[in-house]
Amino acid sequence: MYKKSTxxxxxxxxxxxxxxxxGFYSLSQxxxxxxxxxxxxxxxxxxxxxxxxxxxxxxxxDDQIYDYxxxxxxxxxxxxxxxxxxxxxxxxxxxxxxxxTGNYSVNPDNSLPVNITVYSLKDSVEVPPIVIQGFANxxxxxxxxxxxxxxxxxxLNLSMxxxxxxxQLDLTTKRTGTANIYKGKISFRNKDYKGATDFFEEAxxxxxxxxxxKINFDKALAYFYGEGIFALNLLETDLxxxxxxxxxxxxxxxxxxxxxSELLSTKLLPKNGGTHYDIDLALxxxxxxxxxxxxxxxxxxxxxxxxxxxxxxxxxxxxADKVLDEREIFENNVGNFQIVMKLxxxxxxxxxxxxxxxxxxxxxxxxxxxxxxxxxxxSAETTLAFYSVSxxxxxxxxxxxxxxx
Length: 405
Description:
Distance between the termini: 59 Å
Mean pLDDT: 84
Structural class: alpha+beta
C-alpha cells in the first residue's frame, strides 16, 4: 500500500511540474497600411516575453520557428488561420502542445483590432479566439489584457505573482523604438541589411539604454564591417553607407572592446541563514594604450568653453554646437557600455551572470562625468554585486569572468 501511495504521489508531482511547450508565430495583417507588418512580429514577441514569467510554460519563440522553416526550405510564411499549418512537422519538431498566433488590421484612425488564436496541437480541443481592440502605437497595453486569457485558454493555473507579472503594463519601452527594432528585424530577414542597420540605429539613438536595440545594432554593424581590428577603418571608407552617429558608435565600440579587467577583491554577505549570498566584487578596468589615446583625442575635441561658442584657446567656433551634440552622443554610448560578470565553474560552465551599465557603475549623472569618472586615467575602479546567489553556486565557482560589451 505504501509503495502504491508513493508511486501515485510521484506521478502527481510529475504531472504538476511538467511544462507545456508553447510556440509563438507572427500575427498576420489582414488590412491597412502594410508598412505596419512589423506589428505582428512585435506583438508575438512581447506576448512570449510576458509569458516567460509563467513557470509552467516552455517557450518556443517566433524566431526559432522561422529559422527552422528557412532551414527546411519550405517557406517561412504560414496560414495563421489554419491549424493544419502548424500540425505535423512543426508540432513534432518542437513537440508543441499549443501555438499562439492570430491576425490584426490597422484602421485609418490607427486603431488596431486584434484576434489571438491559441491552437491546441495535442488534441482536438478548440480554444475560443481572444478578441481585443487597441491602438497601433500602444502594443504593450493590448498585451497586458490578453496574456492572462491566453493562459486560461491553455488551462494553466497561475499563482498570484505570475498573474501580476503577465498583466503588468510596460511603461518604460519607447513605442517608436519598438517599431524600429522590429522593422529592422524584418529587413534582416529579407536580407536588406542596410535597411536593418538604419532601423536599429534609429532605435538605439532614441533610447541608448535599450539593450535589444544595442544588440541588434551591433549585429547589423558586424555584418557590414566585421568585428576585427579593421572594422572602424572599413566604416571610414564606406562613405555611401555611414552616418556621423554610426562612426561615433563604432569608435566607442572599439574602445569598449579594448578594456582588460582585474578582480581586486571579493566579499560574501550571507542571506537567509547562509542559503544564499550577495557577492561584492571590487574590480579595475584598464584601457589599452591605443584605445586610451583615441579616447583622449576625442575628449579634447569635445572640450568647449563658455556657452559652447569657443574652444579652449578662445577662438570662435561656429560648429561648436555640433561638437557638443557629438559629445552627448559619445557620453550616451559610453554610459551604455555593459560590464558583464560571469561566475564560472572548473569546467568553464557559466553558473550565473549579471551586468551593469557604465552609467550606473560609475555614477555618470552629469555632462562630463565620462571624462572625470572613467577616462581621467587609463583605468577606473568600481564595486559591483551579484545578489541572492545560492550556496551551491558560490561553492562551485572557480573564477569570475569580466568583460565590457
